[in-house]
Amino acid sequence: MCGIAGRVNFRTGRPVDRASLAAMCDLIRHRGPDGEGTWANGAVGFGHRRLAIIDLSPGGHQPMLTSDDRLTITFNGEIYNFEELRGTLEARGHRFRSRSDTEVILHAYDAYGVKCVDHLRGMFAFAIWDARERCLFAARDRAGKKPLYYREDADGLAFASEPKAFLAEPSFVPQADPNALFHYLSLQYVPGSESAFAGVKRLPPGHYLLVQDGRIAVERYWTLRYSPKQRVSDAEAEEQTLDLLREATKLRLISDVPLGAFLSGGVDSSLVVALMAETGGAQVKTFSIGFEEQAYNELPYARLVAQRYGTDHHEDIVRPDALALLPTLIWHYNEPFADSSAVPTMYLAQMTRRHVTVALNGDAGDENFAGYSRYVASLLAARVDRIPLSLRRVLATLAGGAAVPNTLISRARRFLQAAAETPERRYARWMFHFFDVHKRQLCTPEFLARVSAPDSSTLFEQWFAESRGEAFLDATLSVDVRSYLPDDLLVKVDIATMAHGLEGRSPLLDHKVMEHAATLPTSLKLRGRDKKYLLKRIARRYLPADVIDRPKMGFGVPLDHWFRGELNGLAHDVLLGTQARQRGYFRTSEVERLLREHEQRVHNWHYQLWNLLVFELWHQMFIDTRPTCAPAGLAAGAAA
Q1: Which of 123, 165, 387, 422 could bridge to 24 as Cys pair (CB 3.0-4.6 Å)?
Q2: pTM
Q3: Taking 90 as the threshold, does the pLDDT of residue 177 lie above it?
Q4: Which residues are CB-neighbours of 1 under 8 A, at least 6 positions away?
Q5: Which domains does the chain have, with CATH numbers?
Q6: Catalytic-residue membership of 135
Q7: What is the DSSP letter of 116?
Q8: How wide is the angle at C-alpha 603 spanned by C-alphas 424 and 440, nearest 5°?
Q9: Which helix (H) or strand (E) holds 262?
Q10: pLDDT of 515-550, one tens digit each?
Q11: Annotated catalytic residue: which of 2, 25, 116, 443?
C-alpha cells in the first residue's frame, strides 16, 4: 500500500527530473511513510512512497526493476494471490529475488503482457515501463479500490495516486472543471473518469492505460456481469457464498505487520470479524468509534460482536471538532467530497493506526447483496408506475416543495415527488443532494454558461442503459457498482486510511465474490422488503439477532446541529464572503435562503450546506492558492 507518481515525456523526449518526481511524492508522503524512491531513464521516470506490508526488507523497495532492467514498476496495493501466482511463474522458468507481490506483477507482465491483470486478485494501481517495447502500461483494479489519476501536457503524460501530486509540476496550472463541479453539486462527489481539476482524469476501475507510438489508449479489461443467473436453492447459494467469503477473508490476513478490523456493529463488518476469528489465528483486534448522540452511536452492537468472538476490542467516543478537521478533509480528499461520513471514517482510521497497520472492513456488502432501502423503494415505485402518468404528476405536485429532512413524512414526500419520473430519473433523484432544477436556480447564469454537461439525471439514464442487469434491481446494483461504490465509498475509505498510513482491505470487494453475487437470483438479495436476504442468512450462523435485525444506521455526524451551532459562523463567513461572491458560481440570494431556512428550521438543508462549504473551501485551498505542501500543522495532526 503506497503512493505512486510518474511521467513519460513521449512527445518531446525531455529527460525526466528526479527532483520533480521526489517533489510529487512528497505531496502524497502520507500514503507511504516507510520509505521513498525515484527512478528515471531519459524521458521516463517513476516515484514511490512506501507503506511496507509484505516483505519489509529492502527487497521490496520501489520503483523495482527486473534483473535485465527491461521492466520497471511503481505499485500501490496488495495482490492477495501472489504466492500462488509466483508458483505458476516459477514453473515457467521465472526467478525471483524478493518475497514481494510487486515483483510478481513484474514477472506476470513479462509472461502475459497486458493480460497480466486477468491473473491478479487484489487491489492495485500500478505503472510499468517496458524499455524494449517503449511502452507505458498502467492499470487499476476491477472494483476501483486504488486510485490512479493522469494528465497530459506538451511533454507527454504524468500520473499519480492523488491529483495534488501534480501541483509539484510547473506545467500544471490548477483550474476547476465546471462540468465536474456541476455534477458534484448533485452527487456530493465527482463521478466518472473526470476530476474536479480541468485536464486531470481518473483511470476508471477495471481499465488499463497504454502509452505507445505517440498515442494514449484506455481499455476496459473487466466488466461485472449479472447474467446468466445461477440456478441454485437458498441452501446451495448459502454454502457457495460462504465458501467464497471465507476464502476472500483468509487471503486478506496475509501480512508482515499488525492487522485488525473495523467493526461498526453492522452486518457486513461484523461478519468479516466473525470469519477472521473462524480462521483460528491470532486474537482479532477490532476498532469502533461512537458518538454522544445516540442516533449516530453503534457501539453497543459492536460490543456484542467483540464479546462473542473475544476480540482485542478498542473503541472511542468521538466528539468531532468540525472546525479543526475541515482543513484536513479538504487537503486529503483532493477534490470536493461532501460525504459527511468521511468525518467519522477519518477518526476511526486515526485511532486504528495507533495499534495496527492493516484493517479489514465490510465495504460493498450493500452493493453486492442489495442492502439499501432505496432498492426496496425502487420495487415499490414499480407498482406506482401502473398509475396513469397524469395522476402521478398530480400527486407529485401535491407533495409540495423540496424539503429533505430525514423524517418519515419527508421521505414519503420525496417518494411521491419522484413518482412522475422514469425509473432511471427517479433513482437519480433519490441519490441527489441538489436536484437538477434546484442547481439551475442556485447557479449563476455565468457559471451555467461554462457548463457543457447535460443535467446529472442524464448520467443515470446513460448508466442504466449501459448496465449489465436485465432486472431493474440488477441494473440498479450495476449502476451503484459503477458510480456510488468507486467514486464515493471507496474514495472515502482509501483517503481516510491512507491519510494515516493505514491499509484497508475489503473481502466483499474480492472480484470472485462480486462475480458470484452478481449472478445470484435477485430473490436471494431482496426478498419482499427483506434486504440482503442471503447475506443475513449466512450471518445468522455467526451473529446475534440484535445485530442482524436492527434498523440500518448511517455512519454519519450531526450536520444539522453543526450548521445551527459551531459551523454557523464559518458557513456565513465562507459562503457569503468576498471570495465566494466574486467567484460567481452561485446566486448569493439562494445561498442566503438556504442558510436562513436551515437556521429557522423551515427546512433541513444541512447536506446542501455541507456540499457548498466543502466546495468553497476546496476552491480556496487548491485553486486560489496552489499549495505546494500541506497546510501548516496539518501533517502532524493528521497522523497523530
Answers
A1: 165
A2: 0.95
A3: yes
A4: 31, 32, 51, 53, 76, 77, 78, 498, 503
A5: 2-220 (3.60.20.10), 234-369+482-549 (3.40.50.620), 373-478 (no CATH), 559-638 (no CATH)
A6: no
A7: G
A8: 50
A9: strand 259-262
A10: 999 999 999 999 999 999 999 999 999 999 999 999
A11: 2
